[in-house]
Amino acid sequence: MTGRPSARLLRPSRLATPLLPADRAYRMRLVATGLLVAMASLFLVARALRPAHPAWEWVLAFSEAAMVGGLADWFAVTALFRRPLGLPIPHTAIIPENKDRIADSMADFLRDNFLTPVVVARRLKGMNLAASAGEFLTNPRGGESRLRAGASAMLGDVLESLDPERLGGMVKLGLRSQLERLEVAPLLGQMLSVAIADRRHLPVLDSLLRWAALTIEANEPLIHRLIHDRANAILRWTGLDERFANAVLDGLYKLLAETIVDPDHPLRHKLEEGLETLAHDLAHDPAMQAKVAALKQELLANPAVAAWLDAMWERMRASLLRAVRNPDAALEGRLGTAFGEALGELGSALRDDPALQAQVNRFARRTLVGIAARYGAQIVRLVSETVKRWDATTVTDRIEGAVGRDLQFIRINGTLVGGLVGLAIHGIEVLLG
User: Fold this and answer.
1) pLDDT higher than 90, residue 41
2) What is the dihedral of CA 340, 344, 345, 351, to 10 degrees?
3) 111-115: long-range pairs with CB below 8 Å, 24+
4) Inter-residue long-range contacts of 91-100, CB under 8 Å, 24+ positions, other chains counted
5) Do 143 and 347 form a contact (C-beta atoms < 8 A)?
6) 148 against 295, higher pLDDT
7) Crossing angle of the two packed helices 129-138 and 143-161, in degrees rounded to 10
8) How many CB atoms lie within 10 A of CB 144?
9) Helix or strand or coil: residue 263?
10) Contact in structure between 295 and 142 (CB atoms under 8 Å)
């Protein structure tokens, strides 16, 4: 077996990338131009061989008329997009010279034929949007899975297409601005007042008292040293400073223990009164609110907070991407089951309930008609302004890429029809001659 590739492998694959409209238009332009060149060559050959045989008269008539027809249509098609041969002939380069007027005409066409309330209402009158939506949602192969997959793919593409740094900056800026506008003090005051009213502050208070006892126990040497340093020489000489320090510590331990055990201890009542006063001041005292606001601004200006916001945004973005790229895993379990059952019930109701269909269709028609009435002019103005912002070359290339292939067929047809007309005229001359 030789190493030569087979003829099947040498043939181009049918799965090749399809040609773009501009490429197809370019190929048809080559065909039309080649046909025109062929008619010109045939004209020269027929003119040279005309004395040899009478049949060449017919060939000459055909090629001459075909050449004239092809040239005329070439001029007409070319004049739409550019100046033929670069000559400043009047009424040529029609599209680039009149792109603003074309944009306004396109906008008027869209408004008059698609975006007027009467047209929208007439087109929606015979449509049962609710039944179609219900059929889509109840389709076991489509409904929920296609809706979820489509929404997930769209959201994922949007998240990945946007610049992560710019998007993250926008999110962090928005979050920071919301935090700056947030009045923290009244919110904290309300939360503390509700917690006190529901007696939910008691475990926190007990924990605070135990923490105070443990803190004092951990810092006994420091307390002893402070009392020793502040005592006079007589107390230090007699050793009373040490006894005094122990007495102070024992008194503190006893006070904290009694406060923890006794729910009616005076110190506990004082602490609760202090919490109530703090809650009231946070909610109503401007001075306290100003202090909390200043503390909040200091925290937001801290670089550590900025780093925390950066890390939070990255975790949020990564979690969103994982969820949208694998919606089945994100919605598995009870949440996914409930979501699927809810969509299925909604689809069944839309598909089978005529009264619900009538209400939904009426709402959809009114909504779409209202959108057309309110925003139709803005939509067509967007189309017009977008086309006007394009430069002449862009407009020409896009229109020519869209319809250029069909225009080249006009050139081909003009060449062939012109030739046939030339034959008919030559036949009439022979009959009359």
Assistant:
1) yes
2) 160
3) 111/376, 111/377, 111/380, 115/372, 115/376, 115/379, 115/380
4) 95/392, 95/395, 95/396, 95/399, 96/392, 96/393, 96/395, 96/396, 97/392, 99/387, 99/388, 99/390, 99/392, 99/395, 100/388
5) yes
6) 295
7) 90
8) 21
9) coil
10) no
Q: Whose structure tokens read 């919605």?
A: 331
The amino acid that residue 297 corresponds to is Q
Q: How far is CA 410 from the centre of its chain?
A: 42
Q: What is the pTM of this model?
A: 0.41
Whether the per-residue pLDDT at 203 is higher than 80: the answer is yes
C-alpha distances out from residue 84 to 24, 73, 121, 397, Å: 21, 12, 46, 16
**Tokens (6 digits) for 260:** 């923890």
pLDDT value of position 143: 46
Instruction: Tell me the per-residue pLDDT of 249-286, one tens digit each, with 9 for 90 and over.
Output: 788 888 888 888 888 888 888 888 888 888 888 888 88
- Return mean pLDDT, the chain: 76
The first and second tokens of residue 416, run together, are 């062939």
Residue 328: is it exposed, middle or buried by C-beta count within 10 angstroms (0-12/13-18/19+)? exposed
Phi–psi pair at 259, nearest 5 degrees: -65, -35
Q: Is 390 left (phi over 0), alpha (psi -120 to 50) or beta?
A: beta
Say which residues have a Cβ less than 8 Å from residue 261's Cβ, sequence separation at least 6: none
Amino acid letter, 296: K
Classify the C-alpha dihedral 357-362-363-368 as positive or negative: positive
